[in-house]
Amino acid sequence: MAATRQLHLGAFMRPVSIHTGAWRYPGALPDANFNFAAIRRYIERLEAAKFDAFFMADHLAVLNMPVDALKRSHTVTSFEPFTLLSALAGATTRIGLVATASTTFDEPYHIARRFASLDHISEGRAGWNIVTTANPDAALNFGYDSHLDHDARYVRAREFYDVVTGLWDSFADDAFIRDVDNGLYFDPARMHVLDHKGPELKVRGPLNIARPVQGWPVIVQAGASDPGRQLAAETADVIFGAESTLAAGKAFYADIHDRMRWYGRDPSGIKILPAAFVVVGDTDEEARARRAHLDSLVHYDSGIGSLSSQLGYDVSGFDPDGPLPEIPETNAGRSGRERIVEAARAKNLTIRQLAARAGSYAGLAFVGTPETIADGMEEWLVERGSDGFNVMFPWLPGGLDDFVDRVVPELQRRGLFRREYEGTTLREHLGLARPANRFFPASDRLVAA
Amino acid sequence: MAATRQLHLGAFMRPVSIHTGAWRYPGALPDANFNFAAIRRYIERLEAAKFDAFFMADHLAVLNMPVDALKRSHTVTSFEPFTLLSALAGATTRIGLVATASTTFDEPYHIARRFASLDHISEGRAGWNIVTTANPDAALNFGYDSHLDHDARYVRAREFYDVVTGLWDSFADDAFIRDVDNGLYFDPARMHVLDHKGPELKVRGPLNIARPVQGWPVIVQAGASDPGRQLAAETADVIFGAESTLAAGKAFYADIHDRMRWYGRDPSGIKILPAAFVVVGDTDEEARARRAHLDSLVHYDSGIGSLSSQLGYDVSGFDPDGPLPEIPETNAGRSGRERIVEAARAKNLTIRQLAARAGSYAGLAFVGTPETIADGMEEWLVERGSDGFNVMFPWLPGGLDDFVDRVVPELQRRGLFRREYEGTTLREHLGLARPANRFFPASDRLVAA
User: Fold this and answer.
1) Chain B within 8 Å of A54 (Cβ-Cβ)?
2) Which residue ranges traverse the bilayer (chains A, B) (predicted)?
3) Which chain A residues contact residue B87 at CB under 8 A?
4) Which of the 8 DSSP states describes residue B404?
5) What pLDDT digit, counting tens, does each position of A381-391 carry?
6) What are the structural domain ranges in chain B?
């Protein structure tokens, strides 16, 4: 079975790493936030390793943590990811380019245009990670006094998706005739005016861009709450999962597939890729020691800040050595918060222990030799806990080099990962069909052929 | 005098050319709208010719013209310019990158982030062309039933500019300490929370991006109406002018300088670059014949559509051989409309003649040999009609090649244009100072130095 099903690998990136202590690790580039040349080298290495996609995290505000934590965090500043991925499109030819964009604080016409443009520029490699934006401080940067209600954000997201995909279908693939002799550039009968009027959005269209190379850029979603799973099962091509144990991963995988069947979707039309933090060593002990060294670089003030940010509630005033008290409901992202509260209860963790986990990385981690890591990834694939992973490198460039130079060859040796790209588009890498144009179904693939 | 003052040259681009007939010209690339490789070659040629900037036009809707005209227009579809310029940033090292973005239909936090990102990625080459969006159909793509009032758009634009530049100043240039030993990434005393609460916008900040390389990306404006001139005199670094005669150009130039003095600005802090359509030939006659050939490729339906679009009013039902009737006031861009009405009255032009002008190009044009063209440009520079031009190539790639291969060397021979870039940023190309940080004036240039 393993020979027919292979892993899909995305790289989930922040320029310095997602780990709060990474900028202090020996050999790290603390200034990578604005070091375009360094990021270009990272993506070139990932493309040479045949990764499916390069995936940029994003925040629409400085992270909402106390200033004593914030001042220790390299995450305070970085490139806007869509701009960065557009720049990287010109430096690569095969790897997918997935950018986060919010349905809560942006306009569907803008989002549809940008991702369609990136898909044309990259010749079919764009992906849109739909988020509803959990950071409540973001609302304050966009004219609101407080954050929009969690469920209301998902209602808007669902309609937003319909509008964006409808705009992508504005032109049939065969609309552009370019008949020089007769001066006819396109056939207006092959253009659709969307004229959307919904409860949240009113958008006339058509989009002023030809249909994307992939039909629609790949739709990625990470929401793990009930409305998040519902939205993903109905609309996503890729789920950015967050389960930290194989048992939880298998339950999530089965749940999403069940929900897809309910919507009449074939479960093979979605790829579930949990986040995985990977630390490589010559021995398992060495790998664990490297991780411990990295974690030791997280200042307590920084850990408590990350914990507050992930909970959506400032916990810096509580006793570090006491338990996590009951904290009030907020409108921040629910699933991350619930995972922390569950872990705190189950393992009787103190605030200090929770802070250490939050500042380092508390989710799924593969820490060991290339063989140990490949064993773990293979188990998740075979047991249907996932279709691959969004790999997070503990520090850069070293952690990325370790993965590319040592883990990827081991996965290839086992037949678990491609040695060459077979297709050219991100949908082809992921084994996903090109969606039909809802307004011009018969024109499909005429241009692509 | 001419030896000390030199021309600044921007290339005002659409992928197929701004001319409606250009896609039918022999040797043109009718599919250039989505031909990234072709556009990359264009910018590489312009950079080799030492152009100050590459400037992308934009529209937030399919142009509002009757479908019989629209179907003949290559402008119906193209890349979103910011995405395209970001991709081109990776392919170039010196030329400036100016993208249009609307203050009417976007959020200042997004605009500030994107242009700051492009400025970091390109190492100081970003420019923002502030527009208030004249196309009334754009409003329908962003949730509105009708277009926002012209003056209200300028009120919002002025406040929007304050917010964006304030967000760019969120961090002092020396804020980022990156003290690895002590785990201190930045000095929070060197971060400013904007906390803007104005009549149109409420934005907390700070921006989650270090100050741009240029301090602020170059601010470009094209509005020629009274509120547009006012906004430009107060805030712009570059004005994209539209005067079509030297007399009008000189009056505009003097008017802007007068308005700047009223605001206490040194007039040398602004560069006025009118749009100029340039057709090169071996003789003046040949150049005129080439232009006539190009204009002949504009279908009447297309010309009448362009005219309607420029007037913001559908004139396709009027007698083609009659005069332009009185048309009602609209909320579309005023200055373009007024120029057309004035020309119609002054020269007794029929609708058909106006359509031919609108579909080709009715503004300032230099049509002749390289010497004739250089004479014209020199006259505008010396007579203070402009500080250079935003050159529009009649067709691509041929018209661009003609300019780069033949006109640029003639300008260089006369000492009117650089032979090498002297600086690295767009501000340096234009001879413009790096703005001080309004919140941390003393930190200026510490990082840049």
Assistant:
1) no
2) none
3) 86-87, 89-90, 121
4) I
5) 999 999 999 99
6) 8-65+76-278+384-443
Residue with tokens 């650089």: B418
- The answer to whether the Cβ–Cβ distance between A79 and B209 falls below 8 Å is yes
Q: The complex's ipTM?
A: 0.93
The total of other beta-carbon atoms located within 10 Å of residue B180's CB is: 15
- Shortest CA gap B368–chain A (Å): 27
Torsion angle, alpha carbons of B220, B130, A61, B118, to 10: -40
Give the CATH number of domain A8-284+365-443: 3.20.20.30
Structure tokens at B398: 């041929």
Predicted confidence band at B112 (pLDDT cuts at 50, 70, 90)?
very high
Interface contact A29, partner B, CB < 8 A:
no
Percent of chain B residues topping a pLDDT of 90 = 72
> Would you tell me which residues 382-401 of chain A have a C-beta closer than 8 angstroms to some C-beta of chain B?
none
Give how far Cα A17 sits from Cα of A318, A364, A392, A395, B227, Å. 29, 16, 7, 5, 47
Please give the torsion angle defined by the CA atoms of residues B298, B303, B305 and B308, in that order, rounded to the nearest 10 degrees. Answer: 160
Query: Tens digits of per-residue pLDDT, B184-227?
Result: 999 999 999 999 999 999 999 999 999 999 999 999 998 788 88
Give the phi and the psi of residue A390 in degrees, each rounded to 5: -95, 105
Cβ contacts of B318 within 8 Å, gap of 6 or more: B324, B325, B351
In 3D space, the residue among B306, B276, B233, B287 whose CA is nearest the CA of residue B379 turns out to be B276
Residues on chain B touching A128 (C-beta within 8 angstroms): none
Chain B CA closest to residue A197: B143
Q: What letter represents residue A342's amino acid?
A: E
- CB-based contact (8 Å) between A62 and chain B? yes
Chain A residues 338-367 with a CB less than 8 Å from chain B: none
Strand, coil or helix: what is A213?
Answer: coil
Q: How far apart are CA A115 and CA A119, in angstroms?
A: 6
B48/B96 Cα distance (integer angstroms): 13
Secondary structure of residue B1 in the 3-state scheme: coil
Length of chain B measured in residues: 449
Q: Which fold has domain B8-65+76-278+384-443?
A: TIM Barrel (3.20.20)
